Amino acid sequence: MLVLRGYSKIIGYVLLALGVFIIIGPFLWVALQSFKYEIEILKGSWIFPPTLFNYEDVLYSRRSDFPGNVLNSLAVASVSTVFVLIVGTLAAYSLSRLRWNMWISGGFLGWTLIFNMIPPLTLVGPWYLIFREIGMSETLTAVILTHITLHLPMTIWMMMAYFSDLPKDLEEAAMVDGCRRIDAFWKISLPLVTPGLIASGVLAFVFSWNEFSVALNLTSRATATVPVAIARFAQQYEIQYGQMAAASVLSTLPALILMFFGQRFVVQGLTMGAVK
Amino acid sequence: MAEVLLNNVQKHFGSTSVIQGVDLAIHDGEFVVLVGPSGCGKSTLLRMIAGLEDISGGEISIGGKVVNDLEPRERDIAMVFQSYALYPHMNVEKNMGFSMALKRAPEAETKQAVGNAANALELGAYLERLPKALSGGQRQRVAMGRAIVRRPKVFLFDEPLSNLDAQLRVQMRTEVRKLHQRIEATSVYVTHDQVEAMTMADRIVVLDKGRIAQVGTPLELYDRPANRFVAEFIGSPSINFLPGKMGGGRLSIQSVKGDIEIPLANPVPDSDVAVGVRPEHIQRVDIGIPGTVQVIENLGAETYVFVDIGSGKDLCWRTPGRPDVSIGAPITLGFHQKNLHIFNTATGARI
Fold first, then answer.
1. Which residue on chain A is closest to B97 by alpha carbon?
2. B139 vs B126: CA distance, rounded Å
3. Which chain B residues contact residue A192 at CB under 8 A?
4. CA B83, CA B60: separation in Å to the nearest integer?
5. Where are the domains of chain B?
6. Contact at 8 Å (CB) between A215 and A138?
7. How far is B209 from chain A (nearest CA, A)?
8. Taking an 8 Å Cβ-Cβ cutoff, which residues of chain A contact chain B?
9. To which H or E segment does residue B34 belong?
10. pLDDT in tens, B245-257
């Protein structure tokens, strides 16, 4: 570990504080707005009587769809995460353990990268048309399917790193001990990549939760997810700054909770294979 | 308990041939060591017996049953890996009882089998521990315990001691051997260490580039190596080779002071030969091969003296005690004719 002393220590802390401020500053500002009445927001005042009006309006008022949006988002994020984990883990295991022809595995992995390289908006048009043709337009299923497609590559690549890090000997020992390959996978390999499952699960959930552009185009008022709903607070003739801020703050909660418990695994997962 | 038969076993990776037709019969209860330099195919051969590598040609049978197309779990074998391959998320007891749990054996039976193995290996106090909380030697013993609990027909060992430090290795060597004497199960043991091979084996199989160079008891291999490769591989320090010629009923060994002529009992065809003599068969003599002392290695009980005799490679002289020699001093060495191993230079075969 790098140890800083004297001036470099001061400079280090200043840079660190700057970095934290750049990341947290906007969020704190939004959080601040969420406790103001509309008039205080427009006045831009720093000292104001705090209120929970915005939160009450977003959560409980009859004109608000927000609780429904949260349920939509929860459904989309959880279901897509579960499928991404199942398919991604099995694909990663197969690609890292079975002896595939190089062209097949390389081709497949290259193909999955395409989804991370082209902007998702390029895909939204075709997807919109496809789902309309097959009668799934503006359904949660459609959003779930697209989120699975978008987040599967990341999971495959991450889980592959975890599987490749497991010594082959372990499974071989299990197979000599009396396991079929599927038993060896289920009883030996899978429990050992649990940190990887947590890490990719958290990431897939958070990415799906935050995904905006695809959801915006594929959902209706009834099926809108949280990011879409937040954007809807800005209408043509009126922008509900306070409600928007409150919804934004609320929308960060699931990700915040997940990251709080999963960050150890996520950091480990993203840097895996970097050293050693 | 079972006999393991290898019949013209071959392994190819693409166009490269790793095992080129191996025939071997491992008898019931025998401890056979496969030994050879890295890349000779010994581990591959063991993994083929285990079923972890496909067999490209030939046939392997265990206990009279051809196992070519059987999965590892159907072969009734146990294997100890170089890396130990303990399951990191299971404690010692679970690790050792894993094979029985898979067979859905009654819990009491599993507990007893694990207990017995643990006692024999002095692991009783560690049953609750995870592998990461064990020392290298203890992990090694857990790996062996896991194999014992499995009660296999054949034990396979893949360089199980190479990750241990020197002192522990010597200790474990005797423990593995003791274990075999008690269980008397057919065992195949792979190592690159010829000392391990010599001390542990009932029979040694020396492999060279995917072929069997020689099979025999440790002393057979030491006393009568079938070819130059085996002669060089078995024995530490390694055997000395001097260039020579055969012809006219005599063997002549080249040295800086002219050739040394040795009459031969049996007539042989003219050929270039390599004359091998083990370091302990060299003596200090008055008339013989002259040289200069280059290096002296004192091991306490014995001493290795490396002497330059002008043949390119230094001659190693192994002598008990502490001889009166100094670096740079002239010395004359000789050896008895009966201790010579003569190999054809072209083919490497023993003459």
1. A177
2. 10
3. 88-89
4. 26
5. 4-233, 240-344
6. no
7. 24
8. 167, 169-170, 172-180, 183, 188, 191-192
9. strand B31-35
10. 888 778 888 777 7
Which pTM value belongs to this model?
A: 0.83
Long-range contact pairs involving A241-244 (C-beta distance under 8 Å, separation at least 24): A241/A33, A241/A38, A241/A41, A241/A42, A242/A33, A242/A34, A242/A36, A242/A37, A242/A38, A242/A41, A242/A53, A242/A54, A242/A57, A243/A54, A243/A57, A243/A58, A243/A64
Q: Do B87 and A183 touch (CB under 8 A)?
A: no
What is the arrangement of strands in the sheet containing B260-263, beginning at the earlier edge strand? B260-263, B250-253, B240-247, B271-277, B341-344
Q: For chain B, give the number of residues.
A: 351
- Residues A84 and A196: their CA atoms lie apart, in Å, by 13
Q: State the Cα–Cα distance between residues B337 and A60, nearest whole angstrom.
A: 106
Closest chain A residue to B149 measured between Cα atoms?
A: A177
Test B89 with A178 for CB contact under 8 angstroms.
no
Fold of B4-233: Rossmann fold (3.40.50)
CA distance B47 to B34: 12
Q: Which residues of B touch A177 (CB under 8 A)?
A: 73, 78, 98-99, 102, 146, 150
Instruction: Please give the Cα distance from A44 to A96 (Å, whole number).
Output: 56
The string of pLDDT tens digits covering residues B123-133 is 989 999 999 88
User: Mapping DSSP to helix (H, G, I), strand (E, B) and coil, where does residue B74 land?
Assistant: helix
Confidence of residue B213 (pLDDT cuts 50, 70, 90): very high
- If phi over 0 gives left and psi between -120 and 50 gives alpha, with beta otherwise, what is residue B88? alpha
Q: Which residues contact A157 (CB under 8 A, 6 or more apart)?
A: A92, A109, A112
Structure token pair of residue B147: 């194999």
Looking at residue A276, what is its pLDDT? Answer: 35
Cβ within 8 Å of A, B 43-102: 50-52, 71-73, 77-79, 81-83, 85, 87-89, 98-99, 102
- DSSP codes joined into one string, B167-215: HHHHHHHHHHHHHHHHH--EEEEEES-HHHHHHH-SEEEEEETTEEEEE
CATH class given for the domain over A52-270 = mainly alpha
- Give residue-wise pLDDT tens across range B316-335: 999 998 888 899 999 988 88
Contact: A188, B87; criterion CB under 8 Å:
yes
Q: Name the residue among A147, A134, A270 with its Cα closest to residue A206.
A: A147
Size of interface A-B (CB pairs under 8 A): 57
B204 φ, ψ (degrees, to nearest 5): -110, 140
pLDDT in tens, chain A (276 residues): 677 788 888 998 999 999 999 999 999 999 998 998 888 888 888 888 888 889 988 888 887 888 999 999 999 999 999 999 999 999 999 999 888 888 988 898 888 888 778 888 888 999 999 999 999 888 999 999 999 999 999 999 999 989 998 888 899 999 999 999 999 999 999 998 988 898 899 999 999 999 999 999 999 888 999 999 999 888 878 888 888 999 999 999 888 888 888 777 777 666 654 443
Q: What topology is assigned to B240-344 in CATH?
A: OB fold (Dihydrolipoamide Acetyltransferase, E2P) (2.40.50)
